[in-house]
DNA sequence: AGGAGGTGTTTAAACGTTTACATCGCAGAT
DNA sequence: ATCTGCGATGTAAACGTTTAAACACCTCCT
């Protein structure tokens, strides 16, 4: 009691379960049991305890609770950035489902840096998170998979569960859940949409080799071209990241280099599309009158600019990740699993048939 | 040791500081000291311990650490929703600054429901958060202030700190920090901008009495009208929440009721503006050719639709909230304080002088 | 030679819960 | 009247850290 007396002389200390017990005239065990609810108790005692709790304004100490082995812990989500709408939606889904299951949600951001991602996963392991949800685009080479695989095992050992959300699996035998959506199919669909309108020279904005999301989308783009027997011109694939200003830059640089050598644009996501559209307008080009355009993600911005795009079930992705992780932990049936959610095209007003096109959908 | 043996038979248990100590041949105290870094130690011992940590892949248990009284804890942020861009930006700021200070960030959402907000604050108190940041729009009546004031006191007692971010103070004597931005001045500026262009009938979209943000903005709007000697017509103030679809609804209903009786629109935020713009377009009205429009918040959507708006330092708001809270806690100088950040108008292409207007800025 | 003053390390007492096990009444069966 | 069984409560041992206080050792001074 030495330390307590010393450290408490300055002011009041927060009420503990002991204070409640004393105030209610019962033992701490009884208070604990009544508060956790999962135990029979006499109504009279229950009333006394509840009154004491109210009168003392007691709230339990989550640290102590966690330490002593109470099950309910927290759900961790790790994203590149919170302001990118796609991540925001997934985070919203995670947070909603977590709240529903009575857990709270802790968030980490990486800025897209794998090193920070690793560090954040460690942090979440410290924090005893019940599951760790890793969201989105990342460079996914062998070294990364190997290392993240080890982290997954370490988490499993600590009773936690790694979930990959919107990115491919790490490899066989790695104890991680995967909740994906179909990037390639979406990109295929929306590229076909352009091709059916007669477009042949379609600029792809936002290629970035090695990054999972962008690789899958460029694959869908190429697949559609191939199936429509349109020769693949690598010069039409412009490299860039998935931000608005990159879309602006890519189109700007392209138009600075010479007149438009394309009739349509496939933007790797809607943000790029928005930026690209602005650059086009500054050069007097209108969407869809002069240039057709499609995007990906179906963010609110797409509605603003009347953009035909691919709908992604962002929020469902997040909710499913949490739900799956928690139910897997309950029955402890193997800790791997793979779920692929569907995507579908949303047609708005950003594509016009190419004048004099010969091939309006066979 | 009974429980341990029983509960551990199924598999390996996570490594504890004791394992590390044993493996390195020192005591747990030494390991703890070396890991926390804030203590002298012999390089040889340090090496042994670090090697043991690496070999065993040890990470400390945050619950135990928190219980035992280590200082570094977490920062809590409570917002209406994560997908609303304004909140997302503030959250990003909070998360950034928290990471910078070596703390992690736990997020709660309320969906705008005061009851859920209270519950979430309690949750954060349980979690021993170092500070609790409450963000944004809320109905701020006497009952609310009274109750939240008590929560603030409870937090203070537990060594935590309540921060109100982007909303007004609770009252004198309540131990809470306030970090605001100037809603009224911003609304005044942007309304004046419309008035200077000759507009007299300005539709205000998104009035909602009792809600802090909306009240301040409508006050700025009215103030500007008064100063320009334009009679105030309550029929021009349309009620609604601050979402995109509400902007759409409000304009839609207005135009359904009869021809436009306004020449300009002040949307309470950019999301409303985006929705309103869409409704206008569906009725063949163009911004700015037919109707002038201004918004508030300077979200990315505003750039897309070329909207003149008020810039709000969202991220700085979040960063400042964290910074202030943590430094206040250090020197423990009174736990109240008030900071007002500035806003400024961003002129884009959504306002045209009114034809035949007599008053093009004196 | 006998401290004094540093280092570096260990010992052990907290921190605030949960929960296995022990205990205590008390009703109903024998 | 005694035993059985059960429901309600109490006792005390964890949980994995931090940290004050004690301790051991070494060097330097007088």
Task: Characterise the protein shown here.
In chain A, the strands form 3 sheets. Chain A has a 6-stranded parallel β-sheet with strand order 2-1-3-4-5-11, sandwiched between helices. A 4-stranded parallel β-sheet of chain A has the order 7-6-8-9, with helices on both faces. Chain A is 47% helix and 15% strand. The N and C termini of chain A lie far apart (85 Å). The radius of gyration of chain A is 27 Å and the shape is elongated. Chain A is an alpha/beta fold and 362 residues long. In chain A, helix 6 (85-100) runs parallel beside helix 14. At the A-B interface, helix 5, helix 6, strand 2, helix 7 and helix 12 of A face helix 5, helix 6, strand 2, helix 7 and helix 12 of B. The structure holds a DNA duplex (30 and 30 nucleotides).
For the record, give the distance between the C-alpha atoms at the N and C termini of chain A, rounded to a whole number.
Answer: 85 Å
How many DSSP E strands of chain A? 12
DSSP helical segment count of chain A: 14
Oligomer: homodimer
Uncertain spans of chain A: 1-10, 357-362
Strand residue content of chain A: 15-25%
Order of helices and strands of chain A: HHHHHEHEHEHEEHEHEHEHEHEHEE
Indicate the radius of gyration of chain A in whole angstroms.
27 Å
How do the strands line up in the largest sheet of chain A? 2-1-3-4-5-11
Greatest interface by residues involved: A-B, 50 and 50 residues
């Amino acid at each position: 009691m030495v330390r307590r007396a010393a450290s408490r002389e300055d002011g009041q200390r927060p009420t503990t379960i002991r204070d409640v017990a004393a105030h209610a005239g019962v033992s701490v065990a009884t208070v604990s049991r009544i508060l956790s609810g999962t135990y029979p108790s006499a109504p009279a005692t229950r009333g006394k305890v509840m009154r004491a709790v109210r009168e003392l304004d007691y709230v339990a100490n989550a640290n102590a609770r966690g330490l002593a082995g109470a099950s309910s812990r927290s759900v961790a989500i790790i994203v590149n950035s919170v302001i990118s709408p796609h991540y925001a939606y997934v985070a919203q889904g995670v947070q909603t489902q977590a709240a529903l299951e009575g857990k709270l949600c802790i968030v980490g951001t990486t800025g897209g840096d794998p090193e920070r991602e690793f560090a954040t996963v460690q942090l979440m392991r410290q924090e005893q998170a019940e599951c760790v949800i890793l969201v989105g685009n990342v460079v996914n080479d062998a070294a990364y998979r190997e290392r993240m695989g080890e982290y997954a095992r370490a988490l499993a050992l600590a009773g936690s569960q790694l979930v990959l959300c919107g990115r491919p699996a790490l490899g066989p035998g790695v104890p991680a859940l995967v909740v994906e959506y179909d990037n390639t199919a979406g990109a295929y669909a929306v590229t076909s949409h352009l091709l059916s309108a007669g477009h042949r020279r379609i600029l792809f904005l936002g290629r970035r080799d090695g990054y999972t999301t962008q690789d899958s989308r460029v694959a869908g783009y190429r697949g559609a071209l191939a199936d429509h027997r349109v020769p693949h011109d690598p010069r039409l694939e412009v490299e860039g990241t998935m931000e608005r200003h990159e879309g602006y830059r890519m189109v700007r640089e392209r138009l600075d280099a010479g007149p438009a050598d394309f009739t349509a644009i496939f933007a790797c996501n809607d943000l790029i599309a928005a930026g690209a559209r602005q650059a086009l307008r500054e050069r007097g080009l209108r969407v869809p009158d002069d240039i057709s355009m499609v995007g990906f993600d179906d963010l609110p911005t797409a509605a603003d600019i009347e953009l035909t795009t691919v709908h992604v079930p962002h929020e469902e992705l997040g909710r499913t990740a949490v739900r799956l992780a928690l139910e897997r932990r309950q029955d402890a049936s193997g800790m791997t699993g793979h779920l692929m959610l569907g995507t579908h095209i949303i047609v708005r007003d950003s594509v016009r048939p190419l004048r004099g096109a010969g091939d309006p959908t066979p």
